[in-house]
Amino acid sequence: MSRAEDDRPSPAGAQPDGGDADDRAAPQLPLREFAPPSPAVLAAHDVAGVAEAGFAAPAVRATDRLVRLAYRLGVPGPALARPFGRPVRLRLLATVESPLPGDRVAGMALRAGHFLVCGIKSPVATMHYGPAARLTPPLERVVHGFTWLRDLAASAPAPQCAPTAERVLADWLAANPQPASGAAWQVGHVGHRLLGWLIHAPLILSGPDAAARTRILAAIAQTARWLDRAAGRAEDRLNEVAAWCALVAAGLLLPDGKPRRLHGEAGLARALDGLVGADGGVLSRSPLAQMEAIALLIDLAACYRATRRGPPQEQRAMLARLVPPLLGVTHSDGGLGSWQGAPAVSGARVAALVAASGIRPRPLADARGWGYQRLSGGASVVQIDAAPPPLARHARTGCAATLAFELSHGAHRLVVGCGGAACAGGLVPQRLEQGLRASAAHSTLVLGEANSTAVLVGGRLGAGVTEVEVERRQDGPPDAPVASIVEASHDGYLARYGFLHRRRLALRADGGLLEGEDQLIPAGRKGQRARVPFALRFHLGPGVDPMIEAGGGSARLDLPDGSCWGFASQDGAIELDESLWIDGDGVPQATRQLVVEGVVARGGERLAWRFEKRKTGVE
Length: 619
Prior knowledge:
Helix content: 25-40%
Number of helices: 19
Largest sheet: 9 strands, antiparallel
CATH topology of one domain: Beta-galactosidase, Chain A, domain 5
Structural class: alpha+beta
Distance between the termini: 70 Å
Radius of gyration: 26 Å
């Protein structure tokens, strides 16, 4: 076999290892009083608490611990793996087959000459990859993280995709011959890039040019050496996890890699311990970040299998913990809710990720640590943000969404949040990013046109909500509950206006009725003397056609399938306003919102409302 042929990755085997409600002209809302305060209290530091004790590096022998220590101190891997052996030629030891699918449409666009990111086509021919290039954040993540390789691989057989991959990679390497400053060398991008190169090696190392393959292998080795020193200095915990996953993969797939693998497994354990809370939710509280963490562990497990190893038990256990909270923020259509800057990721994409994980859990309905509550009945699902926002050091696109909710029924979303701040820079203009993170962009009560938590630049959050009280219960007998109820309150408006906001949501067991109540409770002198304007906002999902009914206290909501829901407010007239909803591809869609406005009385305010499914002729 020639050397050029032998430089190509060698194959390796896998390791075995409801009922409808009647129309009501003037609906009454006999909502029960709030129960005396006996709920669990979630403080900001609780939500950002450490993961369950005991998640550590995989257990190894004493000699391996010494090897790991020596490698961390700078002893070269070959000197530790084969102290008296000859240098080994650089090559990849196996071909990885990841079960994660890519975006075929984005891959086809790339073969046609464009990066397709968040709805925007960016020509490959005019793309600048160097440190001085100014790319939007979504495009920067795709281009420098080489996540486009997965999409390209999904668009056609490898021989048809390889020329495109080789051409883009050659241009990128020409613009970035050495590690330097700039976006290309942010630790998170480097981790994703190295992992992508290793997993999709057939796309970049199967060409006839032996010199090009040598350059690419040298870039892979150089990038791994750079990450050896830089992985612990990542921008946030999720980027650190990406870096350690890439190092473990390099330790598995490059010669003399055992010392690097041992070093990487220990670093990955520390990073995961700081990323994931006790119930399996990432501390940024972002569904997008949750999906990214799951995808990284799935890819890493594929690297283990390619080298005829099973992933360590600790990594498998972490993957099993990450999936249930993600399913807890899925709607009745299987797609994700629009929380903490995430767009409404489609059900197909979520299902593909869960299938690739091999985990088959139920959705986690009561995720106190991650901060989301889920109510389900019949074909309806309600999701509630019932925790303080993420701390600044964890937030990527942090949102002031405390006590906001979303409601879906069957294939339709009735009440949503705008979402999509993470897509700003595509079809969503970057100037809208902070607005999409504001309280007013979520379906909750806004006091004094202020955010419940300060929204800062760069995805960060400031002062605001520090504690959230949460209580969850069922109405009726345990074996046949009439309704599921969540009551929660937050202190985000206490310091500025002197009011606590308390919200109660009750979903009937058949899913045909959601009753809600919001209270503004004065606390201290500010609350007793203040008269502050408020706005109760309900952003409507795509395709929902609202119409205010006679009297102004109710609205008819027609859905695309011909079904109908009604909204009624016991306090204040309902108004219609414009809104925006960002879909799973990052494409904004014009929608509407229902708004109930007023001024808080000195003694506080109590607002009752309901969404109810109505009978129509098509049912």
